[in-house]
Hints:
By secondary structure, this protein is an alpha+beta fold. It folds into 3 domains: about 45 residues, Uridine Diphospho-n-acetylenolpyruvylglucosamine Reductase, domain 2 (2-Layer Sandwich), CATH 3.30.43; about 110 residues, 2-Layer Sandwich (Uridine Diphospho-n-acetylenolpyruvylglucosamine Reductase, domain 3), CATH 3.30.465.10; about 100 residues, Enolase-like, domain 1, CATH 3.30.390. Helix content is about 30%, strand content about 25%. It contains 10 helices and 12 strands. It has a 5-stranded antiparallel β-sheet with strand order 4-5-8-6-7.
Amino acid sequence: MHNFEFLKPSTVKDAVAALDTEDAQALGGGQTLIPAMKQRLAAPKKLVSLGGIADLQGVKISGEVVSVGGSTIHAEVAAANVFSGLKLLAGGIGDPAVRNRGTIGGSLANNDPAACYPAAALGTGATIITNTRKIAADDYFQGMFTTALHEGEIITSVTMPVPEVSNYQKFEQPASRFALVGVFVAKYADWVRVAVTGASEDGVFRWSEAEAAFSASFSADALSDLSLDACGMIEDLHGSKAYRANLVKVLAGRAVSAAS
C-alpha cells in the first residue's frame, strides 16, 4: 500500500472541506476501498474518514419513516427496531467483521452490483440525503458502480418509508457472501416495490412486471405467468444469464411468501 494522508474530521463541514482537494477520497467502513488500495487498484493521496462524525451515525424512527445515518454500521441497523425486511438484510451482509465495519453510506456510494443495501433503498423508494441535497432512490442509482453523487458529496443519511410488510431473499456466493441474486419486496397501502441486486449488468433495478403482479395479488402465485428477460443479466462462473433470471423469479416468490 502506498503512503497517504489520513484525516478524521468531527463535522460534515470539515469533511467536505477536506475532500475539496486533489486526490482526496472519503472513507466509510473501508470494506471496498482498503482492499482496493492494498491491491494498488486505488491510490488516493488523502483519506478522509467519516467515522468520527456523530451527526452521521445512528438509527431514528419517526412515525412511518426510518432514518439511518450515513456512517451507521450494518450491525447497528440489524440490532435496531426497524422493519423486518431491512433488519433481515442488514443482518445478512457479509460476516460479523464486515457488519461491524461496513456502513450504509459506503455501500450506497460504492453501488456494487451485488451489494445488498441498494436493493433496500430502491425497494422502499428511499431518499438519499447528502450534504447538499435530497435524491430519490429511483434517480440515485445510475448503473454498475455509478450513482448521482457529485465529486466530494457525502451521504449524510438515508430515509425509508416503513412498508406494511417486507422481506429480503438472498442467494449468496458462499465465499464473498455477496448476492448472486438478492430480491427485496416491500408492500405499501397502494403499491408494491420489487428491487433486484446481483443479477444485472446495470446494477440494482426494479422489476416492474412483478410489482404490478404483486399489487394485484400479493402471493408467489402471481408470478406464475411471468418470466424475466435474461438479456443484460450477469454471466460468470457462478451462473449463466438464464440461471440468474430464473433465480430472480424464485427469490421474489419466496420474499412475498415470507413477508405474508
